[in-house]
Specification:
Blueprint (H helix, E strand, L loop, with lengths): L3 H21 L74 E9 L9 H8 L1 E5 L3 H8 L8 H15 L8 H17 L11 E4 L3 E8 L2 E8 L2 E5 L9 H6 L18 E5 L17 E8 L10 H24 L11 E8 L3 E9 L12 E10 L3 E3 L3 E3 L2 E4 L2 E3 L3 H12 L4
Parallel strand pairs: 1-5, 2-11, 8-9
Antiparallel strand pairs: 1-7, 3-6, 4-5, 6-8, 9-10, 10-11, 12-15, 13-14
Subcellular location: Mitochondrion
GO molecular function: structural constituent of ribosome
Protein name: Large ribosomal subunit protein mL37
């Protein structure tokens, strides 16, 4: 017996096996799992079926087994005796009951329009006024309407949102932005003891809104969920009187030709024409929209630039006001509303605030003639300059100290003015 070669082959077998597998093993990518490392074979293209009139295909359906050379049989769709949602197949869009030949352009909570505020003004037939009016800002400037130790408590609210509410070195924006807004709302609601009308309000979240209107030959809708809604039992008083409303008739809406006004809007054909919904039942005790609060940065998949955020504020304010006007005055277009419908909006990214006051004067939006709606817009108002856990040091010099730097009390007074509007 030959024992020497056999023992040597046995000792070298593991090495040969490792060498053989070394050349066959696929390359491993460390950023994906092992199952995704291999290259998948491309799918074969489906063959096109050719139907020749007068010729009948010969299939192997009668033989109950596969026969080479014969075509694959085509069986009719099997219908179950009951309705099973797991196997439901929707009909084509053309056969659906909500299908309309004229498309509808939808503005939803993730729409980022190209032209920003200018596009929103044209879609809503609105005249823009820069800055909030003095009669509105005077509500927060009065010492009788301010919170006790207001500046100190606001800075504590900022510290709580940026430093005290997390164990991370830098909290994400989606966390401190929402925390700061709720802290400021809690400070404003502490004035309920001196202002009893503040108790007749309700804060709603994740409510669905739908508003439809026509501009020229196009149909538009605002639908979806926007931020927080502060609703009240009494409507907001308008800022512009009857004379100022009639003066808007001479205002000319700005166009942005050659850009289409429908750019960046979703196009659908399944919708209900002239559909209006405030998102609440008719017997809701707080039917009037007071203030909308928008948080920029909460959704990581959809970031808004400041002009796009302001356009979103205008569009949803207009939609809430239009849905309320439809409930009060009916679906017929009104040239001039007897009592304008007003809605406020506040947008923030956790540091900078945007303020808007929208007044709906007309529901006749088909053309550019007649009375226009109005909006007052306060842009890019910072609450503080920076909030850092550690100072920024360069070349042995402290450029930005730690903590909250550059606190501006005027911003919270504007925030408080919009909250107190209608209750003072």
């Amino acid at each position: 017996m030959i024992t020497g070669p056999t023992q040597r082959l046995k000792s070298a077998a593991p090495l040969l096996k490792a060498l053989r597998l070394l050349g066959v093993r696929p390359r491993r990518h460390l950023n994906v799992s092992g199952r995704l490392a291999g290259k998948a074979a491309p799918r074969p293209r489906p063959r096109s079926k050719v139907d020749i009139p007068g010729l009948e295909t010969v299939s192997y359906g009668d033989r109950m087994h596969y026969v080479p050379g014969l075509s694959k049989p085509v069986y009719p769709r099997w219908e179950m005796g009951h309705r099973d949602p797991r196997f439901y197949a929707s009909p084509p869009h053309r056969d659906m009951a909500l299908h309309q030949d004229r498309p509808c352009f939808v503005f939803h909570q993730r729409t980022r329009v190209l032209e920003g505020v200018r596009q929103a003004l044209w879609l809503t037939k609105t005249k823009l006024t820069a800055g909030l009016p003095p009669q509105l800002l005077s509500l927060g400037d009065s010492s009788a309407n301010q919170v006790a130790d207001q500046d100190e408590r606001v800075q504590n609210a900022i510290n709580h949102a940026r430093f005290w509410d997390t164990t991370e070195r830098e909290p994400p924006k989606e966390n401190y932005c929402s925390t700061l807004l709720h802290n400021l709302l809690q400070l404003c609601s502490s004035l309920q003891a001196s202002q009893p009308a503040l108790g007749k309000r309700m804060l709603a979240e994740k409510y669905s809104l739908t508003a439809s209107w026509c501009r020229g030959e196009d149909v538009f809708q605002v639908r979806g969920q926007n931020g927080l809604l502060l609703s009240s039992a009494a409507p907001l008083p308008p800022l512009a009187d009857r004379q100022e409303v009639e003066e808007t008739e001479s205002h000319v809406l700005e166009t942005f030709y050659p850009v289409s006004p429908t750019i960046d809007l979703q196009t659908i054909n399944l919708y209900t024409p002239e559909h209006m919904s405030t998102g609440f039942r008719s017997d809701y005790p707080y039917p009037h929209a007071h203030t909308l609060y928008f948080l920029e940065g909460v959704d990581r998949r959809c970031r808004f630039r400041p002009p796009q955020l302001r356009a979103k504020m205008i569009m949803f304010c207009f939609a809430n006001a239009l849905a309320r006007a439809h409930t009060l005055y009916g679906g017929a277009p009104q040239g001039v509303l007897e009592q304008p419908v007003s809605v406020q909006a506040v947008g923030t990214d956790g540091q900078t605030f945007q303020f808007a006051f929208f007044q709906l004067n007309t529901t006749d939006l088909h053309n550019d003639h007649g009375v226009k709606n109005q909006v007052w817009l306060e842009e890019d108002v910072p609450l503080y300059d920076s909030a850092r856990l550690c100072p920024l040091i360069k070349r042995k010099q402290v450029l930005v100290p730690a903590g909250v730097v550059g606190y501006q009390p005027e911003t919270f007074r504007k925030f408080l003015s919009l909250y107190l509007h209608g209750a003072v």
